[in-house]
């Protein structure tokens, strides 16, 4: 689900990797579908590589998104513009053992904004498909 989905520091929203270029990548915004170059000097994070700190270790972002999807029956998560206390309470519901000292409200805002962007673009249905394929291979 998260393969090829990127977050770029200084840019709003999420981007889909379209192709490589000499100086970096060509990406497409999931918000307005506009394409632009993402230079190698930009801080680019692949969503598939991001994890959330918990008391027991790290939980992959895909697993957190799956928890939100189950809680909301596939609908939208809380708005990233909600108050800090609302965001913390929601986070507690979807990931009860998250590390409150290392996961900041700013991280939660990104998490919920990213989830809602993926949900709006109907890109969350692939979570179960990928997990079922992986389970079938074992």
Automatic annotation (TrEMBL):
Domain of life of the organism in this record? Bacteria
State what protein this is by name.
Uncharacterized protein
Tell me which species this is from: Ancylomarina salipaludis
User: Domain named DUF5606: which ranges?
Assistant: 2-47
Q: Matching InterPro entries, A to Z?
A: BVU_3817-like_C_sf, BVU_3817_N_sf, DUF5606, DUF6852
Record domain DUF6852: where: 50-118
């Amino acid at each position: 689900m998260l393969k090829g989905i990127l977050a770029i520091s200084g840019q709003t929203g999420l981007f889909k990797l379209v192709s490589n270029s000499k100086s970096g990548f060509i990406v497409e915004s999931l918000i307005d579908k506009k394409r632009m170059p993402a230079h190698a000097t930009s801080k680019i994070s692949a969503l598939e590589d991001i994890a959330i700190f918990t008391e027991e270790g790290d939980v992959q972002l895909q697993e957190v998104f799956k928890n939100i999807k189950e809680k909301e029956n596939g609908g939208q998560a809380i708005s990233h513009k909600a108050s800090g206390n609302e965001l913390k309470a929601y986070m507690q519901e979807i990931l009860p053992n998250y590390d409150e000292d290392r996961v900041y409200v700013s991280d939660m805002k990104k998490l919920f904004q990213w989830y809602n962007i993926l949900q709006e673009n109907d890109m969350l249905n692939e979570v179960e498909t990928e997990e079922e394929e992986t389970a079938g291979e074992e």
